[in-house]
Design a protein that fits this description.
The structure is a homodimer. Chain A is mainly alpha-helical. Chain A has three domains: 2-153, MgtE N-terminal fold; 165-266, CBS-domain (Roll); 297-466, Orthogonal Bundle (Tetracycline Repressor, domain 2). Chain A is 69% helix and 6% strand. Chain A is built from 22 helices and six strands. Chain A has helices spanning 2-25, 27-38, 42-49, 54-63, 68-76, 90-99, 102-110, 114-121, 126-135, 138-149, 155-158, 172-181, 207-211, 219-222, 236-245, 266-284, 297-323, 326-331, 333-362, 368-401, 404-434, 439-466; strands at residues 165-166, 191-195, 201-206, 230-231, 250-254, 260-265. In chain A, the strands form two sheets. In chain A, strands 1-2-3 form a three-stranded mixed β-sheet. A three-stranded mixed β-sheet of chain A has the order 4-5-6. In chain A, 48% of the residues are buried. The interface between A and B is large, with 135 and 135 residues. Chains A, B: One of its GO terms (cellular component) is plasma membrane.
Chain lengths: 467, 467
């Protein structure tokens, strides 16, 4: 019977777990929580949020009216798990931390893993950071300060400084007993690291291998050198790529002297991968990579403005090209009616090529070794689609205006612009990448400027020669 | 001394590991490999690629001329690790498998984990798939066939069917001994699952807890129900979201009756997360989500064509709007010169809003509960930037044409179009999402159609009323 119950319970929890997601953000639940906060009913609040996963607790916080967020944390006191703050976006987190008393933050930080503590501290102002650090014990402060001294977005910032390091002359049995009996080991770990007396890393033994080796065997005999050691100063994006590429679950982090200083696990890396893809996607859409849904009107208006200003300059440039052909436009108004089609088609084809190129550069699929082949292929695709759309548009224009010549002119301009779009769409990201400028952020305006200028110039220019 | 050497070696391996990445794709190395393949020098080939990680081996394969790829695999025979094929993109993988003899593929599949075997098999044609399955032993075939029977992109397709399941009445000591002594257990595992006699899951015990519990304790006393149980039919994207959200390393997969049938680990999920972000990014750029860098000219030209055709229709629609104002354009050629600026600025602003909306919908940050607030904010940003750009353009136009009125007209049109862009950019993705259409794929053409049509109509319409 017992097992049956357990099985049923497990499946049930699984299903309930999914329900939780909706329940937490349902107006009824949020209202109940708000009611408890505003009435100062600590016990009710505690029973409502008991057993919530830190991630769900984070979602709940985001669903609360902003003034209730710090209030809830103060009310819960030691019952609030500060890990939930790592699940919030930066803007929301910083605002809550600014409202909380230093005492509350210091108490909350004590129970955190080092990587979570650093994650929460790093976005705060210097004065606030120091105030909080001052409240911690000397060893806690020293550990956090050391992580904070590493550059932003480095492995040193993201790593966990808790790990198990053992000497190679210990036996497997000693290691197993040590793990079984020692208090205060990391909550979750996948391997033990083998180090010399100066903490220089010689390799690791995964837990499952430890279990499958005879107790009398020395660790030094079963250690394997870690093939993927992360340097503490490595950029988190490079680290993420190594994790992805080699399907790593965790990797040791060493300093310049080869001493182990921490460990990175894949759950931290998943967030980095997400962030990175997110930044590329936003950059291609003309939005700052760090724009968050919770950002204020002002911040967003400002950050969007910069990109639009760039676009305005590009659009004015195109407009000057059009102005070169004022006489033709006056003589033949059909040119004005048709010219945006050529530019728009080029812009879209260019964006297609650019999107593929930017993404392939980000994932390192596009390399000097295959660049020539890809450029040739894009050119061919541009030429082919250019010819097809030239024929289609020539037919459409003939049907609309009854002028065969005009169809020929727009067709020729279409071919030229789609070839230009293909070239611009691939060569601009490649060039920016070579110049160490992020192609995701900067390619867009260049590509559309090219397709606008070439589109208008080709169409109006050919028309001026023809008619 | 020994430890020092180890430490040095480890750091060295780390550094060499990074070098490997470049070395593999360097022309010299690829040439050496090609030389060995074409001369049939199996031993040289083996020494060149010995110790390559499956991922690097995959990269090497991609760097080889296509005819040499299957040749290398045949030449290496049992020394070739078929796992490397999972690192290739689909087009390349399928082409290689078609070239290989069934015998070679069958032999290669034998050593694979079930999830890798399924990954390789699933893209093949039915006849080929059956031929390979027929070559395997009955239990191997049955296991793979069962996974293949689950729908594409389901948890059942991605899961590993090797896991350790133990009864709750076993002691920790028995479990540890079983793990230590049994051959053929999964290569890497993070927990043991506790099941009843019918394999219904009651929970799991992570390895580290197993190590820290007294040997005499019954597993049933230390088991915790898994809070995040995956159903075998769950879509891989939903599973990825659960992994991300709750920072999971692995999760059991159960069937409808709650029986454990497999386990999913985060390294498989990382690939799903990547793919998903990749698809959104490409879709926004007007490219099919499954377009790969290795795809043929034809496939790419065809897939890009569909999107461009849609855009052509939209551009022609905008062109018809312009044609409504032929008289105004004829009277005042400056309108033709300026009108693309209004349309372009709207298109870019709309893309910004749309990008943010599509991404926030994909990550479930944008929900009915906050949609109204976000729509209001985007509207405000559109209005604000509209006013700012209206002022800028009015000044530019006055400087260029010396006509105050024209500046006023373009300014007004700019405000209208940026507000329309904001509304279209957010409401179209929201509506598509509600209609269960992927907003990443379909929002673009709608948004730019709106900003083109509104841009031309507002500018030329106001001008026709004014002048």
């Amino acid at each position: 019977m017992r097992e049956d119950n357990d099985a049923a319970r497990s499946a049930h929890v699984g299903r309930e777990g999914e329900h939780d997601i909706d329940r937490i953000e349902s107006p009824g639940f949020v209202e109940a929580v708000v009611g408890a906060i505003e009435a100062g009913e600590r016990d009710i609040l505690r029973s409502l949020i008991a057993d919530l996963h830190e991630s769900d607790l984070g979602r709940l916080i985001e669903a609360l009216p902003p003034p209730d967020r710090p209030r809830m944390i103060e009310l819960l006191g030691a019952d609030f798990d500060f890990t939930a703050l790592t699940e919030l976006d930066e803007t929301t987190r910083v605002r809550i931390l600014e409202e909380l008393s230093t005492q509350t933050v210091v108490e909350g930080m004590r129970d955190l893993d080092s990587d979570d503590a650093v994650y929460i501290l790093e976005d705060l102002g210097d004065a606030e950071k120091q105030e909080i650090l001052a409240g911690l014990s000397v060893p806690e402060r020293a550990a956090l300060q050391r992580s904070l001294d590493y550059p932003e977005e480095s492995a040193g910032r993201r790593m966990q400084t808790e790990f198990i390091a053992l000497p190679p002359f210990w036996t497997v049995g000693q290691a197993l007993d040590y793990i079984g009996e020692t208090e205060g080991l990391p909550e979750v770990f996948f391997e033990v690291f083998i180090v010399d007396p100066t903490f220089r890393l010689s390799g690791s033994v995964p837990l499952d291998r430890l279990l499958r080796t005879k107790r009398g065997t020395k660790l030094g005999e079963v250690v394997t050198p870690d093939r993927h050691v992360v340097n503490v100063l490595d950029d988190q994006e490079d680290v993420a790529r190594i994790f992805e590429r080699y399907n790593l679950i965790s990797a040791p982090v060493v300093d310049a002297a080869g001493r182990i200083v921490g460990v990175l696990t894949v759950d931290d890396i998943v967030d980095v991968i997400q962030e990175e893809a997110d930044e590329d996607l936003k950059a291609l859409g003309g939005v700052a990579g760090d724009e968050e849904l919770s950002d204020s009107f002002w911040y967003i208006a400002k950050s969007r403005f910069a990109w639009l200003l760039l676009n305005l300059i590009a659009a004015n440039l195109a407009s000057f090209v059009i102005a070169l052909f004022e006489n033709e436009l006056q003589r033949m108004v059909a040119l004005a009616v048709l010219m945006p089609i050529v530019a728009s088609q080029g812009g879209n084809a260019g964006t297609q090529t650019m999107t593929v190129a930017v993404r392939a550069l980000a994932t390192r699929e596009l390399k000097p070794s295959n660049a020539r082949r890809i450029v040739a292929r894009e050119l061919l695709v541009g030429l082919f689609n250019g010819v097809v759309f030239a024929v289609i548009m020539a037919a459409v224009v003939f049907a609309r205006f009854g002028v065969m010549d005009l169809g020929f002119v727009i067709g020729l301009a279409m071919i030229i612009n789609l070839v230009a779009a293909a070239l611009g769409g691939i060569l601009i990201p490649l060039t920016l990448d070579r110049l160490k400028v992020d192609p995701a952020v900067s390619s867009g305006p260049f590509v559309t400027t090219i397709t606008d200028v070439v589109g208008f110039f080709a169409f109006l220019g050919i028309a001026s020669l023809w008619f």
